[in-house]
Amino acid sequence: MSPEAIAGFLSAWVLAYAIMAAYCFSASARGAVPIDTLVFGLLATSLAALNGGAAALAVAVDPDRARFALAVTSASRVAAAAFLLHFALAYTGAAWPRRALFALYAALGGLVVLAAGAEVGGAPAIRHHDVRVAMTTVSVWSRQPTFGAILLDALLGATVLGGMAALGRALLAGRREVLPAVIGAVALAACALHDAALSARGVGTPVLLPLGYAAFSVGVVVAMLGSYAALRRHLERRTRDLKRRSRDLGRSYEELKTAQAQLVHRQQLAAIGELSAVIAHEVRNPLAIITTAAATLRRDAIRPDERGVLLGILDEEVSRLNRLVGDLLVYARPVNVERQPVGLREIAERALALAGGRAHVTTAIVEVEPVGPVPGDPNLLRQALDNLVANALQAMPDGGVLSIALRHAEVDGRPGVEVAVEDTGEGMSTAVRGRAGDPFFTTRPSGTGLGLAIVGRIVRAHGGRLRIESAAGEGTSARVFLPASADGGAADDDGEGPASWAKAASAPPPLQVELREALAPRGGETEGDR
Length: 530
What we know:
single chain, alpha+beta, Heat Shock Protein 90, five-stranded mixed beta sheet, 14 helices, 62% helix, 12% strand
């Protein structure tokens, strides 16, 4: 075989290895492949240098050029062996300490320098002659064998055998996709042993090693293509399975949506029924009193003083009904907040004006440091403070101290202002305090039970929080936190965020849990009984 034909064949493989290396490096740069692809790119780069040096050696006509080509091939053989072992370990997932890899590269790096230096300077004289290889004659460069060259061939052979062993272990473990790579590794090991035997006789030219690496590279490419094909089939199966599950989820979602709409409709009807029952209960007592008083007024033999008492009762009950209807309308009306900067001290002073003229009631505004305005609706906030002050006055029938404290506060990382309405009245027990914010719950004979419920809706609509602190006989402190910005994000006592508050602010408010339980059917009771 002519040297030009050998050089052309090896040059074609140089181009093939360059394409492999470019693909591996570009894929690794995109971060879409594992580390073994990057190492295979480095292996392809070293093999391109090896084949390039072997091609130059095949057409070399003088010893100086031959020495340079031998230096390139020797250094490339060392680098290729190191990258081959690293690739086999990474591709098969074998456990290998990083320190061992560093030691491998450091040792083989030193061998690269020694091998290249030994060929370029100080090497024995070389000569050009023909060798019979596999029924063909090949022109090679020979030199006297040295101990260093024989040791280098032995180390490189051991490295190649180590890579073949790692691939073979993966094949025995059940990874059938590595079979083409194992076959290529076996061919490479045979070619490496053949060239090592020639090197021991003084032939420095790599004769079959480029063919062995070509077989190994083809085996690795076939193995990777098989892995990618298997992965593609797996992904196609998963895609079909996900599409089927998506269709099932779509049907389930539609069924759930229909069921949810029916449940919401039933809850709305139940809420309307409960609210109607509560209103009927609250209105029935005043109407019964009004009916009795009216029937008594129709009598002819009624004294003037009795008539005055009955007329006073009528006025009181009509006022109670009017107050109940008014509070109910306020509670059920959507809370629309028209935000603007609000000075809380001015609102607090106006709310304390309700205590004017009350005997034995002392009022005060506590503001350690001036608090700035907060975004809010002044009319709604005034209504909320008025209700809190009215409750405090009702809790102090014999007088006491009523104060409003303004202070800077922070809740769940949100800065804002806390307004605390504090009294020294009778306080509330734990059971009463737990139900204080429930609609229609009251301990006052003339109360409607909607005062604190209205305050709670107003505060939540502002993104704030209402907290009641009280103990029987120790007074009550109603604390209102208002955020300093309109885009707050903390949760209230029920775990709801401002987004849900804003949504709930425009919807009819729910009834308390105890009312639902009270209106639920009891044992032995039928729909007609109620």
